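Convert to structure. Protein one:
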Amino acid sequence: MAGIKGDAARPVELKAGAIGFVDALVIGLNSTSPAYSLAAAIGPVVALVGVYAPGVMVASFVPMLLIASAFYHLNRADQDCGTTFSWVTRAMGPWTGWLGGWAITMTGVLVVGSLADVAVTFGLLTFGLDGWAEHEVVRQTLTVLVILLMTALCVIGTELSARVQNVLILAQVACLLAFAVVALYRVHAGTGTLDSVRPSAEWLNPFGSGGALLTAALLLGVFIYWGWESAVNLTEEVTDSATAPGRAAVWSTVILLVTYVSVAFAVVAYAGTAFLAENAGEEEFVFALLAGEAMGGWDWVVLLAVSTSALASTQTTIIPASRTALSMARRRALPASFARIHPRYRTPDVSTWWVAAIAIGWYLVVKQISENALFDSLTALSLLIAFYYALTGVACAVYHRRRLTVSVRNLVLIGLGPVVGAALLAWLLVESVVDMADPANSYSGVSWFGLGPPLVIGIGIAVTGVVLMVWWRFVSPAFWSERPGVADAEPVRREEP
C-alpha cells in the first residue's frame, strides 16, 4: 500500500520481503521479553500458587494460542500492518476498529520506558556499576538514550532491526538456559544454598492451588505472553506475507510455553516457594538474587539475560504501535503525516518517532510521581492487552462467518477457538477491573478518585481514546464511511480440505 510520496514523486511503500520467517519469529519472541517477563512474574505467581507456577504458565498459554490462531487466519485474508485495527474495522466497523488500534498504540507508549529502564539497570549491574544503577538522574538519562537508539534502529531499516534482534535472542536464550541447567543440576546434586524442592509432574496442574488464587495468577501469566503479534505487524515486510507472519506468531507462543515452563521448574525447584514468596515484591530483581545464589561469580550471566531481554523488547515493542499508526493514517483514521514512509529506509519514520517521543514523555512524567506509579502504569497494560486480543478473536469469527460451516476445521480453528480465547480474555479483563478497583492491590497503595491507580490510568486512556476518536470523526469523516466487509476469502478456501 502506498505511503506519502517520496522525493521522486513516486509512492513510497514499506519494503516487501525485507525479512524472512525466522527473523519474524525472533522479533515475535523478543517482543515478549522472555527473561524480563519471567523474572518479573515468577515471584508473584509463586506467592499465589506455590509450586503450581509451571501449571499457570501452561494455563495462560491456552488463550494466547487461540488468539494467535485468529491472527494467523485474519492475516491470510488481509496482510495489513495495522493487524487488529484493520481486521476489526473490516469485520465490525470503523468505531470498534479505531479503538482496537488505539489500544495497541498505547500499550507501546506505556511499556517502552519501563523496558528501557530495566535494560539500563541490569546492564549496569552486569558490569558492576551498582552506584550508577541506583542514581536516578544517570539511569533516567541512559534510559532515554536507549529509547532513542532503539527507535533509530527501527527507522534505519527492518533488516538491521532483525539482525540486532537475532543477536539479542541468542544471548538471552543462552543465558537463561545456562541458569536453568546450573540450577537443576545443583538441585539434583543437593548442593543448592536455598530450600530446594525436587521437581514433580504435579506442578503442571494449574488447579492445584484453588480457583481464586489461580485467577490472580492467570492475570500475571497472560501478561508474560503478550507481544508475540509484533511478527504480524511486519506482515507487509515479510517474505510470504500471507502465511509466514501468522506462523511466526503461533510458533512464538509455543516456544514461549516451553521456555517459561522449563525455567519456572528450575526456579521453583532451586529456590523453593518460601524464598520466592518472600521476595515477590522484588519483581525482576528476584533473578538477580537467585543468580548470586545459584551461579556465584557467574551471576552476571542472568543479569545479562534480563538486560538483553528488555533491550530487545524496547526495540520490538515500538513496531506494533508505529505500524498500527501507519495503517490508521493510510485509512485516514489519523493525520496523514503518520503515514509517511522514509524514501530511503522504507520504514514509517514519523509514526515511529512519535511513539518514541510520547513514550519518553510518559516515562519521565510518571517517574517523577514515583517508582511505584511506573509499575502501576504497567499493571494497567493488562486491560488494554485483554481488550484488543479479545476483540481480535471475535473479529476472526465475524470476518470469516460465511466460511465457518464449510468444514469442521474452519469451525474449530477460525470460529470456536478464537471466540473461546476471546471469552477467556474478556473474563480476565473483568477480573482485572475488579482487582484494580481496590487501591490496596496497586503498587502505590494509594487511592486515585476512590480507585486503584492502575484502573484510573486504564480508564483515562480509554476516555482519551474515545474523545480523540469522536473529535477526529468530525475533523476527517472519510474513515467512518467504511463498511464491514471481507478483504479476500480465497486464502480461507485454499485451506479447506
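Protein two, convert as well:
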Amino acid sequence: MSALKFPCSIFKTQRWMDDYSADDMHCGDLSETQLKAEFSLIDVSSSVNPYTLTKITPFTQPQSMFYGSRQEGEKITREKCAKILFDEFRYLSQLFSIYGPYSDLITEMITHMQNNNGSEFRSLKLNAALKEQILNDNSPDNSTRLLLEKVFNLNIDWDRKCYPAEKEIDMNIAIRKGKLPKFDRFQDGFNGMGITVHDTWSTHITLKSLQIDNDRYHATLHYKVQDHFGLDNGDISNFKFSQFRFFRIWFVLQRYNKFGFKPFMTNMEATVGITGGRNERKK
C-alpha cells in the first residue's frame, strides 16, 4: 500500500481553463442587422444610438411625447459613443451591486473590459470572496470542504501516518457529489458577486499537503476557479437578461462588429485548511 504524493490534483471540471473558444468569449461577430433582427436589440441605451452614432435626446426617444418632432441628435465618433456606453454600463451596474466589500468589483471589471483588450482579470477581493464562500458553506451535502473532511476521516492510515494512494479516487467522487463554489446565493444578487461571477466555468482542486501528527491531521487544499466575463447568445435571448439595459449595452459593446470589446477570463484562487482527528472517523 503506497502513500499519496503531494501536491495531488484531485478534481478538474470537464470544461477546461482558458477556453477562448467558448460561446461567451466571442466578440465583434454580429452586425447591426443581426443584433436587431435576431436579438431585438433596437432600444439599447438611453444616452446614445450605437448604430447611428448619435446622442439620444427627448426628441429621438421612441417613448417620448416629443419623438419625431426634431431630427436625430448630435453625431459623435465611434470612440465617443463607446465611452458613453461604458459610462452608462457602469452606472447601471449599481442595480446589482448595492452593498458589501465586493460591491465595487463590477465597475472595476467593466473598466477592465474597456481598457485592457481581453487580458485576464485578477483581484484580491475575488480571492477573498471565493475563500469566504468555501469556508461559509456548511451544508453537509453540498460543501466540497466538508465532504472531503469525511473522506480524510475515513481513509487516513493512522498507523502509517499517510493517505493511501489507492484511495485517491474517493476524494474526486466526494467532490462530484457536492456543489462547487459558486455565487448564486440570495445575497450574491446584491453584494456584487452575482453580477461579476455568479456561476463558474472551470474549477481545479489540489490537495497541496496532508500533515499527520499523532492523532490529528491538517490538510491544505487549493481551489483555482475561472469564469468568463462575457455574454453568449443564450444570455441575451433570455428575458431575465434582455429586459435590462445593463445587459443590452454589455452585449452590444462585446458583440457588435463596430465595437468588439473583448471579454476576458476572471481568475480567482483560495487556499483553505481542513483539520480532523483519529477519533472522528465514525462521525
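The beta strands are 8-12, 48-49, 54-55, 121-122, 202-213, 216-229, 264-277. The chain is about 35% helix and 20% strand.
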